[in-house]
Each structure stands twice: as structure tokens, then as C-alpha cells.
Amino acid sequence: MIVLADLLPNINELFEWKGIFSQHTLFEFNKTALMAFASTAICIGIFWVGSRKQALVPTGVQNVAEMGYDLIEENVSLAAMGEDGRSWTPYFTTLFFWIFFINIWSVVPGIQFPATSRIAIPLVLALISWACFIVVGVIRQGPAYFWHAINPPGVPLALKFLVVPIEFFSKFLMRPFSLAVRLFANMTAGHLLLTIFAIMTNELLIVRASGWYQAVFAPLPFLGLVAFTGFEVLVAVLQAYIFTILTAVYVNESMHPEH
Amino acid sequence: MRTLTILLAAQDQLAQAIRSGLGSVGYGLAAIGPGVGIGIIVGNSVQAMARQPEMQGVVRTTMFLGIAFAEALALIGFVLKFI
Prior knowledge:
The complex is a heterodimer of chains A (259) and B (83).
Chain A: H1 2-7, H2 12-15, H3 31-50, H4 60-81, H5 89-104, H6 120-141, H7 145-150, H8 157-207, H9 212-217, H10 219-255
Helix pairs in contact in A: 3-4, 3-5, 4-5, 4-10, 5-10, 6-8, 6-10, 8-10
Chain B: H1 2-30, H2 32-51, H3 56-80
Helix pairs in contact in B: 1-3, 2-3
């Protein structure tokens, strides 16, 4: 552990980047912002090129874009919200593909950094989802939405004093917090783990490679690095999917209150 | 005077080591609950998929949803270790 304390710098050095331009201002542009913009460009590129031809039988990029849209419509919109969900599919497609393309930079060689491992992007996305399900609730059920949401049906009066505060805390405070922290913590933990395995492999294989001891133990962190890179791809897809489907479930709950 | 400075520095290092050690212990404790929880979720969903194979898709989706909820707590613990 003492060796690792020497090797591993302060954790902030893994996540803070120097500005490329506009340093020391509010709009400092560093690697995080660069990767977020790159993902935006990729998303816009895929769906813009895919919708140029508009052939009845899709081929090429149009096929890929339509498959992506269909995936979200079938597994997120229709599954979580039923037929009412069709008008929400464009937003969910944007959300899913943007988060996925930001997450996947974590394992791309050369640029191994997920921009969602800084709290800013997950926080804003969670606040947008929070605003979505509150506004939909107020539009559908009027201001009485707030009371209906925290007052579940079929609860005896004596228990209501306990259940109502818990429901309020869980619905209006825990939801955006957990949405943001789930995405942020998954990406941060993955990035950190990959960095640790890479440093260990580097130390055993290259820097201190002096005897049979290092040669015997060096493949272990390397295997861990390979395995966790594969796992990170799964986590990138899964976290994007879970953010999207949780937003869909929350909006559905606001649209169709339980009776 | 010099021994005093060295003693103070050693004490500070000790405090730092204890702090980071307690952080790891905290994360370990925080990981017990979600570990058991995810095991229960996946076990029950495997049983459900075996009993009614035509509901595989729905069960699998709900399983992933449940795993995300349970894992969020473990990850909050992991992040708090460094804060």
C-alpha cells in the first residue's frame, strides 16, 4: 500500500485537465468539454447523414440510425410508457446516444476519459429529467399533482404521517440525486479502476522489471486491465440505457398516476 | 525542537493514513448491502425466467433496472471514499 501511495498521485490529477483555451475564465475549454462536443458532433453526424436520403427501404447509415431509433422506441418508450410514449422517443434517443457516446470515450485508446465522470453533465441531465417529470405531472393533473404524488392510495391514516414524508423525499429529492450520482459514480469508478490497473502493469512490466518476481506477477494486472476494459464497454451502454429508461419510468408515473 | 517537528510530521502522516484506511473500510461496509441485494435480484429473475421463458425480455429489463438501483448505493459509497 505504501508503494501505491507513492505511485498514485492525488485522485484529482486523473480528472482535472488544463484548459486548451480560455484558461482561468468561466468558459475554460478543457478535455472534458472537448469530449462532450465531440460526442455531440458524432450524434448529430449519425442522425443527420442517416436522414438525408429517406428511402423507404433503408440502407447504410440510414439503416443504422433507424435501427437505433427503433431500439429506443421498442425498449424504452413503448416498454415504459405504452402508446403515449411515441412522442417522447426523439428525446430519449438523444439522451441515450449522447450519454453512450460520451461514456464510450472511456475505453477508446488515446482519449481514455469519460466526460460524464465530472459531475456537471450528469447533474444537468438529471435536473432536466427532474423538470420533465414534474412539469408533465403538473400539466396532466394540475397543481394537485404534488399531493397525489406523495400520497399513495390505500394507506391507513396512522401510517400516512410516516409514508408521506418518505415519499416526498424519495420522489422529489432522491430521484434527481440518484440519477446524477449513478451515472457519475459509475464512470468515475470505472476510469479510476482502469487507471490503477494500468499503473500497476506499467510498474511491474516496465519501470521496475528487474527479476522473475515482476515477470510472474505482471500479467495479473494486465489481465485485469483487459477484463475491465470489456466491462467498461458494458457499463457505458448499461448506464446510458438505465438513465434513459429511468427517465421514461418517472415521466410515465407522472402521466399515468396509480389509482 | 527538531524531534518535535519530526514527531508532528509523523503524526500528520499517521492521521492521513488512518483517514484513507477508514475510507476503504467505509466503502467495504457500504458494499455489503448492494452485494446481497443484487444477488437476490438476479437470483429471483433467473428463477422467473426459468419458470416462464416467454417473459424473458420483460424480466431481463426489470432485472437491469433493479441492479442499477441497488448498485447506485455501492457507488455512492465508492465516491464518498475520496471526498
